[in-house]
Amino acid sequence: MWWVVVVVAVVAVLATYLTWTAQRVDRLHDRSASAARSLDAHLLRRAAAAAVLAEDRQAPELYAAARIALDAVPEEREAAENDLTRQLRSVPLSTDEARDDAVIAASRRLGLARQVHNDLAREAHAARRRRLVRVLLLTRRHDRPQFFDIDDPTLTPGAPPISPAPAVAPPPPAGVAG
């Protein structure tokens, strides 16, 4: 008779653990999707603030980069955001002006949103790799979270503008041994 109690207890503990694991996987994927939506909103806010700044400063390259970032499809989003970051770094910014301060604040918030999004995506990937989750197909309802890797978008006010780096380093001069 005591073995029936032990079997029922083991089944109850196992069912509780499986339920907890399934809920954790669902929560991680929901939080990751929410962070992706938040990241997208911050990307749009920064690009819009950069477009306003470009119109104010008469900077056509910055305006073009901001428009491309606003209109980018998801597959081209990272490249467009990196280009916008390079263009913003080439413009001197000051916290004394409201438009500059808006771009600086939006860039800081974007950096934080990107970090939160990537951390949650990493946690969701770790949960997906667990053997029990794979065996029981607990992630079949969820898409795999994608990381968003861009240059650090945080801008430093008052720093001298940084010219965009060349895509490829120039070759060394002929006859120079290195």
SSE order and pairing:
Elements (H helix, E strand, L loop, with lengths): L1 H56 L2 H12 L5 H13 L8 H32 L1 H5 L43
Helix pairs in contact: 1-2, 1-4, 2-3
Your description of this structure?
By secondary structure, the protein is mostly helical. Helices cover 66% and strands 0% of the residues. It has five helices and no strands. It has helices at residues 2-57, 60-71, 77-89, 98-129, 131-135. It is elongated and about 85 Å long. The chain starts with a helix and ends in a 43-residue tail after the last helix.
Describe, in short, the structure shown.
The chain has 178 residues and is an all-alpha fold. It has helices at residues 2-57, 60-71, 77-89, 98-129, 131-135.
Radius of gyration: 24 Å
Total DSSP helices: 5
* Average pLDDT over all residues: 88
SS-derived structural category: mainly alpha
Q: Roughly what fraction of the amino acids lie in strands?
A: under 5%
End-to-end CA span: 83 Å
Q: How many E-type strands?
A: 0
